[in-house]
Amino acid sequence: MLTLHLDDFSLEHFLQHYWQQKPVVIRQGFRQFEDLISPDELAGLAFEAEVESRLVYKKAGQWQAEVGPFESYEHLGEQDWTLIVQAVNHWSPEVAELVAPFSFIPKWRFDDVMISYSTPGGGVGPHIDLYDVFICQGSGRRLWRVGDIGNHRQFAAHAALLHTDPFEPIIDVELLPGDILYIPPGFPHDGVSLEHSMSFSVGFRSKSARDMLSGLADYVIDKELGNALISDPKRPLHHQQGQINASDFSMIRAQMQALLDDDAMVADFAGSFLSRTKCQLDLQALEDPFDAPELLELLQQETLVRIGGLRCFYLDATVAQGVCYIDGERYEFGASCKDAVVALCDSESLDYASLATGLGKPEFVLALTLWVNTGYWYFQD
Ligand code: SIN
Ligand code: CO
User: Could you say which of 171, 212, 309, 333 would form a disulfide bridge with 322 (CB–CB 3.0 to 4.6 Å)?
Assistant: First the structure.
């Protein structure tokens, strides 16, 4: 199990003074850190169509970016290129273990573990991200420069590569295996590999109001909500045909606001929307599915592990009724299952005792059986 070590401050101090505020280097955050996946395995993953990957390099001084899946890396030579693979935690249980040390931030804020393999001189160029990232250095050394937040011009160095102008560094460090660089959104940064190296980026990305409202619009349409039309009986005489007057505007606004004021509806939307994954899951349905009694028997001896990248949430407002959201779906198991629902969403691994309150309820056992048969959880050998 990976343990995060902070020698210079506590997690509370980190959250108070750095999270979303300023970058910081955490030397030897992971002691004796070893690559959680080999460069060869990473390169192999980028051959797969389901896996999101990119190659970034320079050709004749011009930045180039290619989107995977790839068939070969032979044209790239020995230096100055980087392979980036997104959501590797979905495909490698070992990489998925890098998420737990950052569980002091709730999972709904978590995005994915992106891994880059760089040859000497390789990097993606100076850029700004919209997410918080903990860049954990694996094998090899990489030079990182981070500039201050500010008005940095951004431009397309290539159609698929948004860069920023050169910046004055506030951090200029060489990361060694086990070192971590935390960068909040908006701080320009540039990493250049000094040798063959691996970086493991644990990313957290929040949603914009636009993301949320567009998701809410889809939800409202799917559930056929918000059908009531504006109604204005006994309206006063109107004199100016072209005017939407202040009181009419209030009515228009109030119609939309009424939807947002429906706490139960917005909570239900948020639970299902935030529990959806952005990248594909490595779901492997069982060829020989369990029936419920078989599952219960095995659970007495073995532990169930959640597949990497699966998102499971509950909300304070409804957890008492045993409501949870798993991969975009809402489930309600009743008050007696509350503790099981909490365990399901809080823990990466489950045993009989942690699920005990749910295992007495047939609906819960049935759902658990279905989840295991679908591949959401698997028995650890
Ligand atoms: C990288 O790991 O090469 C790029 C990570 C980043 O700066 O976003
Ligand atoms: Co970045």
Answer: 333
